Structures are given as C-alpha cells and as structure tokens.
Amino acid sequence: MPGLPWLILPTFNEAENIDAVVRAADAALASASPEGHRILVVDDDSPDGTGRLADGLAEELAAVSVLHRTVREGLGPAYLAGFTHALDHDAGYVLEMDADFSHDPADLGRLLDAVRSGCDLALGSRYVPGGSVVDWSRSRQFVSRGGSWYARRALGLGVQDLTGGYKCFRAEVLRAIDLPTVRSRGYAFQVELTYRAVRAGFRVCEVPIRFRDRQLGQSKMSAAIAVEAMFLVPRLRRRR
Q1: What is the CATH architecture of 5-239?
Q2: Mean pLDDT for all residues in the chain
C-alpha cells in the first residue's frame, strides 16, 4: 500500500535480538499506524543465522520482509539498500532503528507522530531535555557527546544529537538528498544524512528518547568507524 511507514532494520549477527526486536517493533507500529506498516530486515549475510531467523519471522508476520545482502559493506550501505527498497515500494515514511534494543521500539510511534505533525525528519535524541543514556560508562558518553559537539560546530548545525541512529524521515526527504552519492559507511552515515536534510531546507525535530546499551550480542563500533566519522565531517563542509 502506498504511503505506509516502513521500518528499516539492518542486522549483522543479531540472532539473540532479532525475534524480540521485530515483534516489539511490529506491535508498536501496528498501534501507531492502524492503516498498515512494513518492516524490512536488511541482513548482511550474518554467519550466526540472523537472516534465517528473519526469514522465519517474515513467514509468520505479514508486515515483515527480508533483504539479504551477500556483500558486507557496513551500516551505511545496508541502510541505503533498505531505503531504496522502501521508496521503490511507495513508502510514505521511512524509519530506522538499531536491532539491539538500544532504541526502545515503543518510541517508533512518537517519531512517526512528529513527522506526521509537521517535521520532515524526526531524530530520537539523547541530548535534548528529557533524553538520556543509561548503562554507558562516562568515557563512552564523553566520546558520544564530543562527537556530536564536534560535528555540530564543524557543520554549523543546531541539532544536539547528530550521531544517533533512531530516525523517521518523510519519504520526500530521502528522495531529495541524493542517496546514491552518500559515501559514509559507519556511524558517520547518520551525520551525513541529517546534514544533507538540513542543507536541503527540511525541518528537523529532536524527540527525546532513553537510550540504553545493548544487553545481548556484540557492539559493531570500532576505531575505524570513529576515525571515518572524524575525517568525514570537514569533507562534508567542503563539499557544500
């Protein structure tokens, strides 16, 4: 059906989380969007069987489908593949969320409501009043806040949480920001998409969320991802 909200859920080795997180997201979106919704799991050939488990969910739950990718290119390309699939199937809204429960699926409806109420891009924000981070060490919080501060100052943006990955886009935003030219692969991808949306004149809102560390599975964060983000930000400004 055209105009429905689509949730893009990229996965790599999330066998411990995939069943519960998909079911929670499905229930949250069913409540927020009675007219219907879709959930697309984008699996990068997980060796732990995440893709196979997702296929089982797709057979059981009508809203769920799976996009299997055989090349592991990172978070950014996985999202781009999912976004393109959703837009090709007439999505009205496109949401993104981590598959490890660091983002509470119950907040999907709040992000969708923010866009339906006038925002073009709603960000689940840890760093606005009402937002919070739990289960992280002080050093990790410092790195996260510092990364957002650095990107905000370098790019001249007023967004407080530039590195977060819990978002809802009006479909027109993704169609307007030239997705095929996005080159970032790791968490810098989140900065780049928000920057492009702001530069294109779209209205960005931050919705406070409670972010928690994953309880099961392994984090995909690495030094290489952090370095990519550090060097990408000034390149984005030069491209402007």
Answers
A1: Alpha-Beta Complex (3.90)
A2: 88
